Amino acid sequence: MVARSPFGTDEFDSRQFRTAMGQFCTGITVITSKNSDDEPVGFACQSFAALSLAPPLVIFCPMKTSRTWPAIAERGTFVVNILSNRQQAVSAVFGAPGQDKFSSVSWDSSPAGMPVIRDSLTWVECTVETVTDGGDHYVVVGRANILGDVLQDKPLLFYRGGYLSTEHPRVTPAQEELDNFLTWNGGDTWL
Ligand SMILES: Cc1cc2nc3c(=O)[nH]c(=O)nc-3n(C[C@H](O)[C@H](O)[C@H](O)COP(=O)(O)O)c2cc1C
Which part of the chain is the Flavin reductase like domain (predicted)? Predict the structure, then answer.
């Protein structure tokens, strides 16, 4: 017998799961690297987060079918480009399959030679620490080695399957809540 609760359902399909998870608003990154021919590769990725301050770790989840992921796994080095609200077109290009995604963007090389997409809010160069199974995705933990400059711009957001941008609402949580936030820098800038 199926367990029923007045507060939820255990009968849902992947479309309903996607709709429910789409209520969680995220930023958008493009994760870049180079393949064995030294060509730049990358894909749009919302499943990115800061994981640990000490040591500085990040996390992201590539689909097992991603064509970019094998190149990142082989290199062991990648750059996370955090997109600004001026870069919706960049997200669209890197969020779809394509041979020559980099022809539509300007990019520079990080210290390890990985692509840094110009005009991103910021970027971080990382090395792969661990890779574990996550259903139809991998769960990748990376160590942050190099931080790029931070642009004073607004982020590109993804919410309910669409793009969104926002002014920063200056609503400040209580101090004890802020202390637990990995992305609070102790100043008055809320990232
Ligand atoms: C806003 C947005 C967020 C995405 N987030 C992810 C993600 O977290 N993980 C993932 O594997 N693919 C994600 N994708 C889909 C990939 O970017 C897309 O499948 C892309 O074609 C993969 O390229 P590749 O096969 O060259 O690696 C996202 C796409 C968009 C547009």
Answer: 21-165
